[in-house]
Amino acid sequence: LNLAFLPMHILKELVYIDLSDNLLDWSIFCRENKTERFFRNHPFLESVYLRNTSLIEIKCLGLNSLDAKYLLDLSNNLIEIIEKDLFSLNNCIVHLDLSENLIKFIRPESFQYLSCLQTLTIDGNSLTDAEQLNFSKLHKLDYLNMSYAKLTRLPIFDLSKKDISMNKQYDLESIYLDHNLIESISAIHFDNL
């Protein structure tokens, strides 16, 4: 499909939508809040695929109205920056794919509100320095892929900041860091894993 608009009047009970590889004009959608209205009218979505749709910024999507836990695939787009409070009202994302974008910078606390996040894929970007990223609040994260990200330094996976009073357990099982430019690794990078 060469879909150039969002289909606004489709089933309200919709749980899966794949708009990948379409020529969506995000400037119109964002300016007129069309994406926010679309997601508000379809709160039960569980899978949202917007792969390769020339998306430049995430904040205009208006995903905050989704109630269900869901997968969000934003891979192969033109996203450059992940802002600090981008996901502040949107903690229902379970699987987030930001791979193969133009991301050069991710604010340290960008993912702190994603308490349900289990899978984070940010491979194929140009991050270079991820040392300041904070994964301490992602208690359910079990898969992290940062391969092919041009990393020169690693994030510190310091999960010691966990809230002991809540007895939080961490599920992180897989970290992919292959094909980067990392020259040294210290034990501090993986403390308390």
List strands and helices in order, with pairings:
Blueprint: E1 16-18, H1 26-31, H2 34-41, E2 47-49, E3 70-73, E4 81-82, E5 93-97, E6 105-106, E7 119-121, E8 143-145, E9 174-176
Parallel strand pairs: 1-2, 2-3, 3-5, 4-6, 5-7, 7-8, 8-9
Describe the structure.
This protein is mostly beta strands and 193 residues long. It is 7% helix and 15% strand. It is built from two helices and nine strands, in the order E-H-H-E-E-E-E-E-E-E-E. The protein has helices at residues 26-31, 34-41; strands at residues 16-18, 47-49, 70-73, 81-82, 93-97, 105-106, 119-121, 143-145, 174-176. A seven-stranded parallel sheet has the order 1-2-3-5-7-8-9, with no helix packed on it. Strands 4-6 form a two-stranded parallel ribbon. The longest helix is centred in the first third of the chain and has 8 residues, at 34-41. It is globular, with a radius of gyration of 17 Å. The chain starts with 15 loop residues before the first strand and ends in a 17-residue tail after the last strand. The model is unreliable at 161-166 (pLDDT under 50).
